[in-house]
Amino acid sequence: MKKELSKFINDAFKPYGEFPARKDVVQELMSNLEEKYNDLKSNGLSDSEAYQQTIDSFGDVKEIMDEIDGHSLQGDTPRSASSVHKFKGIAIESADLEGAQLSEANFSGSALQKTNFSNAHLTNATFTAAAIAKGIFNSAQLVGTTFTASDVQNAQLTGATLVRVQAKSTSFKSASFEHAMIHESTFKTTDFTEASFNNSTITDTIFEKSATTNATFQGATLTNVSFHNSDVKKANFDGATIDKVTYALLLGMKANLQNVTVQ
C-alpha cells in the first residue's frame, strides 16, 4: 500500500511543478499518510477501507494547493521589500527574521527550515506547502495566519500568540507550543503527535480529525476546546485546568483526565 500512497501524494503535487520545499513537504506528508493508514489497519479496517479513509483525510488537493502556482514559483524574481510575494517559492533556510514585520507575507512553496521568526509579526501570513521544520516562532504574533500542507515538525512556538490561525493537512509533530496563547483557531487533519502544549492557554479552538498521540497539555488551561474526531486517548492532560463542557467531551472520548482541575 505504500506504493499507492506514494502515487497519491505525488499525483497531488504534480500539477504544481517543482518548488524549493516540495521534497521535504512530500516526504513529511507521506509519512503522515502511512501512519494514518497503519493506525486504521490496526483498528481492524481492510486494506481498501484504510486506504480510502487515509486519502480522504488529506482533503481536497485543489483546495489545499490553490495558493501554489508551479510556474510562477519557478519564475518569480524578488520584488521590492514591501512586496507580500517576496518570499514565495524561495529557499532561505536558517534565515534570521526575528522581529520582522511580515503581515500578509506569502511563504507558499518556500524552504524555511530553521528560520528564526521569533517576535515576528505574521498577521495574515500564508504558509502553503512550506518546509518549516525546526522553525523558531517564539513569542511571534500569528493572527489570521494559515498553514496548509506544510511541514512544521519540531518547530518552537514557545510564548507565541495564535489568534484565528487556520491549519490544514499540516504536521506540527513534536512542536512546542509551551506557554502559548491559542484563541479562535482551527486545526483540521493536522498532526500534533508528541507536540507540547504545556502551560499554554487554549480558548475557543477546534482540533478536528487531528492526531494528538503522546501530545502533552500539562498545566494548560482549556476553555471551549473541541477535539472533534481526534484521538485523545494517549494525550497527557495532567495538571490541566479544563472547563466543564470541554471536560465532558474529552471524557466521552476516553481521554485520561484523572489529574485535571474542572472549572
CATH architecture of the largest domain: 3 Solenoid
The CATH superfamily of the largest domain is: E3 ubiquitin-protein ligase SopA
Order of helices and strands: HHHHHEEEEEEEEEEHE
Q: How many β strands by DSSP? A: 11
Distance between the termini: 46 Å
Largest sheet: 11 strands, parallel
C-alpha-based Rg, rounded: 18 Å
Beta-strand portion reads 5-15%
Q: Structural class given helices, strands, pairing?
A: alpha/beta
Weakly predicted, low-confidence segments: 74-83
Name the shape in a single word. globular
Helices, by number, come to 6
Overall pLDDT metric: 88
Number of domains: 2
CATH topology name of the largest domain: Pectate Lyase C-like
Secondary structure topology:
Layout: H1 2-13, H2 22-42, H3 47-58, H4 61-65, H5 70-75, E1 126-128, E2 141-143, E3 146-148, E4 161-163, E5 166-168, E6 181-183, E7 186-188, E8 201-208, E9 221-226, E10 241-242, H6 244-252, E11 261-262
Parallel strand pairs: 1-3, 2-4, 3-5, 4-6, 5-7, 6-8, 7-8, 8-9, 9-10, 10-11
Helix pairs in contact: 1-2, 2-3
